[in-house]
Amino acid sequence: MNTFADRIIAFNNQLEYKGALPAGISIMNPFKDNDFATDVSSQFYRKYYSDNHPRHLILGINPGRFGSAMTGVSFTDPKRMINQCHIPYNGPITHEPSSEYVYDMINAFGGISEFYRQFYIHSVCPLGFTITNDRGKEVNYNYYDKPELQKAVYPFIIENIEKQLQLGFETDICFCFGTGKNEAFLRKLNNEQKFFKQIIALEHPRFIMQYKSKTKQHYIAKYLEAFNKVIID
Questions:
Q1: 203 within 8 A of 230, measured Cβ to Cβ
Q2: HSE, side-chain direction, 13 A CA sphere, residue 188
Q3: What would the pLDDT profile of 43-85 be if each residue is shown by its tens digit?
Q4: Per-residue confidence at 1, pLDDT binned at 50, 70, 90?
Q5: Residue 232: its pLDDT value, please?
Q6: Domain presence at residue 203
Q7: From start to end of the chain, where are the E strands?
Q8: Is the residue at 17 inside a domain?
Q9: pLDDT digit string, tens, across residues 146-178
Q10: Pairing of strands 138-141, 170-177
Q11: CDD domains in the record, alphabetically (predicted)?
Q12: How many domains does the chain have?
């Protein structure tokens, strides 16, 4: 029986950006850049997605260096993969604040199994980007941070949202992590491509952890209120 797990793993394995990028920007593909992300993410999806229960999409921005670039699973850093998902991980142990928030929210929702039975988290752009800053340090870069980059990856974004929808996700509502540039881009794209009937945007986990951590519970409640509207028995 072909399950969501089978289809998601196949989608991840085919991810490859073959276009040109603006000078100084590098692509980040966890499924080709290291020896552990494919294995650990496959274990994750087989554990939580080995069925065909209807699910809704949640789209973040693009993978970050310390989260899905390590594990191959969106908003799941190595610490959460080991301690929350109980899946072995042999790569570098990194910490991503966004992942910490998402798993606090997931636990408030009712637990990991119940949340992933209803939702699938990925990104508007399924691969990430980095640049080297003025201090010589490699840092995350978002697909919308440079107009030339956004233009370069635009067809790639469309292609891979279409491929993800073909996996069988619901299209009545898509949730968007990010109420700024990510939301604006996704709404404009959706107006053109008609992927979803409605987009519901929520503040990005990184924004919450960086600027609103003292009121984190308020945002968790807001997330839960939005997600509970689409629960499928």
A1: no
A2: 10
A3: 999 999 999 999 999 999 999 888 999 999 999 999 999 999 9
A4: low
A5: 87
A6: yes
A7: 26-28, 56-60, 119-123, 128-132, 138-141, 170-177, 198-202
A8: no
A9: 999 999 999 999 999 999 999 999 999 999 999
A10: unpaired
A11: UDG-F3-like_SMUG2 (cd19375)
A12: 1
Number of Cβ within a 10 Å radius of residue 108 = 14
Cα 138 to Cα 26: distance, rounded to the nearest angstrom: 10
Compute how many other C-beta atoms are within 10 angstroms of the C-beta atom of residue 225.
10
Cβ contacts of residue 13 below 8 Å, gap of 6+?
31, 38
Which residues span the domain enclosing 156?
A: 4-12+22-230
What are the structure tokens assigned to 8, written together? 């998601």
For 74, the token pair is 């969106």
Q: Dump pLDDT digits (tens) for 109-144.
A: 999 999 999 999 999 999 999 999 888 888 999 999
Task: Write the CATH number for 208.
Answer: 3.40.470.10
What is the DSSP secondary-structure string of 90-108? -S-----HHHHHHHHHHHH
In this structure, are residues 147 and 80 in contact, taking their beta carbons and an 8 Å threshold? no
Tokens of 156: 């790639």
Q: How far apart are CA 122 and CA 72, in angstroms?
A: 10
Six token digits for residue 84: 């929350």
pTM above 0.90, yes or no: yes
Assigned domain for 72 exists: yes
With 80 as the cut, is the pLDDT of residue 102 above it?
Answer: yes
Per-residue pLDDT averaged across 25-53, rounded? 95
Which sign does the torsion angle of CA 138, 140, 143, 148 carry? Answer: negative
